[in-house]
Task: inverse folding
């Protein structure tokens, strides 16, 4: 399952990415807001992180204006490895080296085409394991 959540500054980009999921038959769930009414991003991130704790193999995408607040909020949780990505290469590395399970995006910083490319690389890049296993375990407090 791919969970989406966004604040008021991420509505338009979320809608683009939801359409991408529909077009590509990607199972997803929208936990975010659908209007520009103000909402606090830590509360939005909390909803998504709690859902991922229930479905360990799931991934999430958090969207706000810059992606920074969402990434800070999400990384408070031990089971979350959230990566703010501005291009597909960052997304690839976040998956290969860090086993990121949450992608954070900033609607004000990237266009729709780049966002789709970032999401594709996030969804279709596997964790390399090997030398990264111990490092990722340390991120989760398992060592």
Result:
């Amino acid at each position: 399952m791919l969970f989406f959540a966004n604040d008021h500054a991420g509505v338009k980009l979320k809608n683009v990415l939801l359409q991408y999921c529909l077009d590509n038959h990607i199972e997803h769930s929208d936990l975010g807001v659908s209007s520009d009414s103000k909402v606090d991003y830590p509360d939005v991130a909390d909803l998504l992180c709690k859902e991922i704790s229930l479905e360990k193999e799931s991934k999430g995408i958090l969207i706000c204006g810059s992606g920074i607040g969402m990434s800070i909020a999400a990384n408070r949780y031990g089971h979350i490895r959230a990566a703010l990505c501005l291009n597909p290469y960052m997304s690839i590395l976040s998956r290969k080296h860090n086993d990121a399970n949450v992608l954070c995006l900033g609607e004000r910083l990237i266009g729709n085409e780049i966002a789709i490319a970032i999401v594709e690389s996030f969804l279709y890049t596997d964790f390399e394991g090997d030398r990264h296993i111990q490092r990722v375990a340390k991120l989760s407090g398992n060592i």
Observations:
- The mean pLDDT is 96.
- DSSP finds six helices and five strands in the chain.
- Residues 96 and 127 are 4 Å apart (CA to CA).
- The chain has one domain: 2-139.
